Amino acid sequence: MSDTDVLQQRFDELIDADERIEPRDWMPDEYRKTLVRQIAQHAHSEIIGMQPEGNWLTRAPSLRRKAILTAKVQDEAGHGLYLYGAAETLGTPREGLLDRLHTSRQKYSSIFNYPTPTWADVGAIGWLVDGAAIMNQVPLCRCSYGPYARAMIRICKEESFHQRQGFQIMLDLANGTPAQKEMAQAALDRWWWPSIMMFGPPDAESVHGGQSMRWGIKRFGNDELRQKFIDATVPQADLLGLTIPDPDMYLDEETGHYVHGPIDWDHFWDVVKGNGPCNRQRIETRVGAHENGTWVREAATAYADKQATRLETEESAA
What we know:
mainly alpha, two-stranded antiparallel sheet, 13 helices
């Protein structure tokens, strides 16, 4: 048995035993590539996802709302940093990942390519988008790759806060004036279908899903997670007094699951390919922010280098 075979056998044993793979452990190239692709897309989504709600930081309806939204957007930036750090443990520099994002060689979640025309959209994002994210991400706390799993623990706790904050906005609007309730319903109409598309294409069409589940990177298929989200969210909409924009939806009494109507996957793939309402705007804004922050990164690096030189000088003198 070759050395590679021995290492592969050890890797397979860890996976079969549901134990963690750590950065110094040997891993197959495809396992590493799959992790980098998934973690990078996740990190990019957190960073780009700051924009739709960030547009409302100066327009939030009260100082309290503004403070809460500022904290949330700041959390999303932190999530991106945790995830870029996890990707770096796989030997992929952050600068390289950002370059791939800025040149559209790597994707982020299609959900963030839609506009937020009203304050209710901020509530819908928190309730639906973050709710879908939680459904996707809680199982990742048990991901077979240690750094990714550990990063997800804090991320999921903060996303839970975001989901509750969004639902509270929708609850206040739904119980407000007729115009406010209408605004909440319009936001639900805009975000419902993109939210259930967040889970990705049907399992039968998923390219990487099966292998990711065998490796323990993912724990559930796209269809199962989508069903869990729908089953959890429809009763919440009923509580709000809002209507899910799916005339074909019904509750299957035998299974206890809601059956949804057809999903427009052509639209989904069109957005993924860069033809959504805000694709170009999101990347242009991100690239502009990165370029405007060059001097901050250079100053921080220069300061760190200066401190390192000072410590080396002090140690030599001692």
